[in-house]
Amino acid sequence: MPRNLERKFSIKSGAEGLPATAAQRSRTVGDAYKETTIALSRIVKEYEQQSRGIVAAIEMMQPAAKNVAPAPASPAPYPPAVPANPYEAAVTADATSQTPDSLSPEELAARARETLHSIPATRPTIPQGMPNAA
Amino acid sequence: MLRSLFGTTKAQKSEQRRADVHRALLHYEARLGGELFGPIPKGVRREFFCLDEHTWVWHEEWTDEHGKHQVLTTRYDVRPNGVVKSQGSNSYQSLEPQEAQNLYRAVQLYEWRVGGELRRIAGQTA
Q1: What ipTM does the predicted assembly reach?
Q2: B105: distance to nearest CA of chain A, Å?
Q3: CB–CB of B24 and A31 under 8 A?
Q4: pTM for this structure?
Q5: Chain B contacts of A54, Cβ < 8 Å?
Q6: Do the Cβ atoms of A43 and B82 come closer than 8 Å?
Q7: For residue A43, which residues of chain B lie inside 8 Å, CB to CB?
Q8: What is the distance between the alpha carbons of residues A8 and A117, in angstroms, rounded to a whole number?
Q9: What is the pLDDT of residues B77-88, one digit of tens each?
Q10: How many helices (H) and strands (E) does chain B have?
Q11: Which residues of chain B make contact with A21, given a CB cutoff of 8 A?
């Protein structure tokens, strides 16, 4: 018997109260244990089924995701920047072999002239039969 | 008349004694139950006990970081359709999965540890 209980209730008086109450409490605890574990095991099983259901749903989605054709590779997220002027365009076109820094100013000017000559006239021609706005 | 009066007094004493024993056992169970969760931190009072066939109580007292005394009593009610808990004046709530697992384990340990102790006391002087 625990000492604090032994001190509080002597064996003599305890014989009429403590063991009987302990036996009663023991039955109460036993009943509570049975009832609670039955209820909790049901709850725990429900949670397990729910989590299994979620896992199964995820697993079902995974093969479907694998069957989806991959998106075509995009060349670049954005179109390349358009040069602001022909001089720049000439320099950019030649950038694969020579960087602007490696060209002398004379060479750069020559490249720019060549490029300017190769670019067609950008002024639109007025279609015949259309009133001349000028 | 005197016999009747003495008889009533004796019955009252017996009833009072029974209530005292019951209370003392509950305190003892609560202390043992509180130890099921591992070492109790210093300054913390933890009790866990079976109140009756359908009720479990977890009581904790501690001092928070501001030095304020805190008390939390959680009551778990076992009902035919499940287990619910209530804390203070809050309404009943369902158990989280982890909490249900923890309570399940605590109840198993309680029956083994505290129930075993009660059976030992009951059988000792019976």
Answers
A1: 0.84
A2: 9
A3: no
A4: 0.62
A5: none
A6: yes
A7: 82-83, 95, 100
A8: 115
A9: 999 888 999 987
A10: 3, 5
A11: 18, 21-22, 25
